[in-house]
Amino acid sequence: MGTINTLISDALIDLGKLSPSENIEPEDLAHGVRVANRLFGRWSAQKLLIPYTTTESFAGSGTASYTMGTAGTASSVRALRIIDAYSSDGTYDRPIKIIGQREYNGISDKSYDGRPSVLFYDPLYAVGYIYLWRVPSSSYTIYIESIKALHSTFSVGTTVSLSTEYEDFVVLGLRNRLAGSFGIQVTPMMLKEFIDAERIIMNLNLSNQREVMNMPSMFSGDNYKYNIKED
User: Fold this and answer.
1) What are phi and psi of 121, to 5 degrees?
2) Are strands 128-133 and 65-68 parallel, antiparallel or unpaired?
3) How confident is the model over 80-126, as pLDDT tens digits?
């Protein structure tokens, strides 16, 4: 885990405009942040998701559903997926099981209250919905770990948690976009390095995209997931 400052500094080091022992000048850093925001905005428009994980908490009390998105009750940033959760009463922590929509739909009395034991997340756009069962009967702090898409909302010092393959892609993208600001021409090799990194990210995202299809009655009408890359 690092900051956007580190990614920009690494891009400038690759360009030969900064040594590893130097601190980036404030003006160069501010310019780099603006470039990073524009780049991430462009990548987002290309549906090129760059995910990161984050742990957050919210107060669960008296209601079954909570929102993730602008002005959300659980978080102001919508999650792509929730991967872990637990509740705390201030003394003891207890895990919350993550379930799918079918299992949640099978709960006959969704108003039954108590300490939450299961969570279903519906990642609707632009606001996702968290459903808890049992409905919190008193004040519990709900902790969730989720995967989110990194948006172009950086400021100086913003913490960025990226896996290695995404970090390399971002640094190479920043390097090439910042080159012109320092009078450096992007070479064919620099362009190839970025294209190779971009291809890795695109293939990674494609392999993680799974669609749900309704199977005919001979398969009991169940929903099965398939991968468009599988035979």
Assistant:
1) -115, 125
2) antiparallel
3) 899 999 999 999 999 999 999 999 999 999 999 999 999 999 999 88
What's the token pair of residue 33? 């942040």
What is the tally of helices (H) and strands (E) in the chain? 5, 14
How many residues are recorded in the chain?
231
Alpha-carbon distance of 55 to 146, in angstroms, equals 7
Residues pairing with 207 in the sheet: none
Residues sharing a CB contact under 8 Å with residue 17, sequence separation 6 or more, in sequence order: 182, 184
Q: Which amino acid is at 121?
A: Y
137 within 8 A of 112, measured Cβ to Cβ: no
Q: Which residue has the tokens 């392999």?
A: 207
Rounded to whole angstroms, the Cα distance separating 195 from 169 reads: 9
Helix (H) or strand (E) holding 39: helix 26-45
User: Tens digit of pLDDT for each residue in 49-60?
Assistant: 777 778 899 999
Of 163, 172, 175, residue with least CA distance to 193: 172
Sorted by sequence, the CB contacts under 8 Å of residue 3 that are 6+ apart come out as: 157, 158, 159, 160
Domain boundaries, the chain: 2-49+164-206, 51-148
